[in-house]
Amino acid sequence: MINNDWDEILKIIFQSPGFKKFYNIIDEEYNKKIIFPSKENIFNALKLTPYKNVKVVIVGQDPYHGVGEAHGLSFSVQKGVKIPPSLKNIYKELEMDLGITPATEGDLTNWAKQGVLLLNAVLTVEKDKAASHRNLGWERLTDYIIKTLNLKEEPVVFILWGNFAKEKKGLITNPKHLIITSTHPSPFSANNGFFGSKPFSKTNNFLINNNIDPINWDLK
Questions:
Q1: CA distance 151 to 82
Q2: Is 0.90 topped by the overall pTM?
Q3: Which of 63, 135, 140, 199 could form a disulfide with 70 if both were Cys (CB 3.0 to 4.6 A apart)?
């Protein structure tokens, strides 16, 4: 399904009767309703960031539910789409933290290709209905993904923004890894701990201290 090392790592899930039954439900949703992202982009985060390349994980909740926005990467929107408020605030913090001028597009594919796994906990959503696919079954897969990353020998940075993402903290027990938490970058909470949290410099300092190439966060 993914065409890289994730296929072998996630085989136990993908081949299980429970997941196959769940995925049939998702198929039916696509047949009957407008679901985002497009079916070929559901696993985009895994396709762009193989397990062996993961240096950083940014956990999101579920895909954007507006037309043309979601493409399988947390917080990212397709080129040409208006940058959502949370991503605008991520760009603002990036500028305050590292002096990087905000990008004019919201496509974070370049981060994914460098080893930033942009993982939503729920991988699909019905048009205009936020969190509509929560608790259908995606969490079993995405929690397992986080658990497998927790087992990595190489240090990984887990960035958990907001209470929903922080719920995943219990899955990350390996002391080799770094967990960075703050409030969510949403306009409703960004001023209460997200701005000034410096996640990007903290991430790169940790990677450099562990002899891992840092992320070039500049999307331009």
A1: 37
A2: yes
A3: 63
